[in-house]
Design a protein that fits this description.
alpha/beta, Beta-clip-like, four-stranded mixed beta sheet, two-stranded antiparallel ribbon, SET_dom_sf, zinc ion binding
Length: about 130
């Protein structure tokens, strides 16, 4: 279930429900940063998704809230802890990470897409 704000209230989207679903029924919550392919944020009452890395065809879409959006939604900005009965993900080769720095507040991001979605909060404050 995804949580969104509208008209001052919190609402939950039951995305797996095929009877009332759309493309969102194919989006799942990411359990960790390695499997995350999308970041969600809200702007002017609408929810937007941005990719955080290239997505190959037939790849499951996995999303988590942008840091500021998670704080605003009172959701955890960290990922869901994997349960012990869940098969662990295969190790991912760690490549050197360039950091992207926000020129407005100095926050750093692992990808340009995360920086770009973060900068939307500064546009709202202008």
């Amino acid at each position: 279930l995804f949580q969104v704000l509208k008209d001052g209230g919190k609402y939950f989207l039951d995305t797996p429900n095929e009877d009332c679903g759309n493309w969102m029924m194919f989006v799942r919550l990411a359990r960790n940063q390695e499997e995350q392919t999308l970041v969600a944020y809200q702007h002017c009452g609408e929810v937007y998704f941005t990719t955080v890395k290239p997505i190959e065809p037939h790849t499951e879409l996995k999303v988590w809230y942008a840091a500021d959006y998670a704080k605003f939604m009172e959701a955890s900005a960290v990922f869901i802890k994997e349960e012990s009965d869940v098969c662990p993900l295969p190790p991912v080769a760690k490549e050197p990470v360039d950091t992207w720095i926000c020129s407005n507040c100095g926050s750093t991001f692992a990808t340009f897409a995360l920086l770009e979605s973060h900068q939307c909060i500064h546009k709202d404050r202008v």
